[in-house]
Amino acid sequence: MSSRLTPYELILEPLEDTAFPAIRAEAEQRGSDTRRRDQFLLLGAVGATLKDIVPDDAPAESIDEYGELLYQGYQFWTFGRRLYVLTEPVTERLTQPVFDVGTWQLAAPPSCYLQFPYQRLWARVSAESPFEPVDGCFVVVDDTEPVPQGGAHTRTQLVLGFRADRPGLSLVSYRTDLNPHSSAQYANTPWREEGPAFSNAIAGGELKGYRTLATTSELEALVLRIFFYLDTHTRALVPEEGSTAEGETRLAHVIVGE
What global pTM score does this model have? Predict the structure, then answer.
């Protein structure tokens, strides 16, 4: 199994040569902590980079999402570009309405990208918007910021409607503070007002095996379940080099399977 082209490769990887090193150099000079999103966004090099990557016709309300995308991409680069590709069986298992993680306590990489099977999960940016396929999500887990009860500060950014032949994408961001000792209560049974968690909400989608993310509770639970799986099923993680047709280089990734 191979990973698809990721939004990091298409949009953010070109920043590795100049922009990301410039951000790191300025942060070191100013004593800024780039793990802290507020300090990261105040850097001059970050502002200059955003001007380059935000489309001229982007609506004003999207600027914050691009700032989050740049922040997530920088963390992804800083912490080793960890890409996890979930197989169909694992995705099916982790999107059941109820999933028991037992007494597991939150353990997660500081930054990663989780890629789901093609057109298996769907979500939308608002209740008025159409559903779009979820490519995956960037996740940052940071314990350097003060969090009540010694927990972790987490940020997740869903990437919707992403295709290599499409000029744009849709982004949905969510942040929360989690106490590692109470992870199970958020992972086991996520909330949805109508229907079971993760159930299909697209007309005819059940015939194609679609599942939908309709609430932030579902998104939070799914990310926690994936981290639980990564932490407790190490034999199911198969590293693969980013491979290649002739002359093509891809991100190295880990297959998350059974």
Answer: 0.93
